[in-house]
Amino acid sequence: MSPAVQIALAVALVVVVFLLLLALRRGRPRDLVAPDRPAGDGQAEVLRLARAGRTVEAVKVLREQTGLSLLDAKRAVDVLVSGGTWPPDPPAPGKGVDDAVRAEAARLLYRGKKIQAIKVVREHTHMSLADAKRYVEGL
């Protein structure tokens, strides 16, 4: 075997080993720490901060306790301040769908564009995929 072929085989072997190691590394589970769930008095602490006008701190504490996104934590703090409870009961499918969204979804469904109709409902109501699908199928 010529030296050029030997070098080419060695380089190919190194590349294959590198790719295998890279693939194995990607498949390895990462050390993840689940966010702490709120303690029994966690909601009270968030509410105390929010009522004291310290909304940013309340949102931060709620995010630390629950792992919520910034937007969801802000909404939850607003609900708590207005006298509601968190987590709220999930909305019933179909509630909160205004006439324009209902009409657009029906129009898309009539044209055979069921997926687009579901997307429209989800974008305007923040329903889960399953709830939006059931709603559109019920039109």
Write a compact overview of the structure shown.
This protein has 139 residues and is mostly helical.
Helices, strands, pairings?
Layout: H1 3-27, H2 42-51, H3 55-66, H4 70-81, H5 99-110, H6 114-125, H7 129-137
Helix pairs in contact: 2-3, 2-4, 3-4, 5-6, 6-7
Task: Give the tags.
single chain, 139 residues, mainly alpha, 7 helices
Structure description:
This protein is mainly alpha-helical. It is 66% helix and 0% strand. The chain has seven helices and no strands. It has helices at 3-27, 42-51, 55-66, 70-81, 99-110, 114-125, 129-137. Helix 5 (99-110) packs antiparallel against helix 6. Mean pLDDT is 77; it is low at 30-39.
The backbone outline, from C-alpha atoms, is flat
- The number of distinct helices, counting runs of at least 4 residues, comes to 7
**Any low-confidence stretches, pLDDT <50, length ≥5?**
30-39
Main sheet makeup: none
Question: Would you report the number of β strands?
Answer: 0
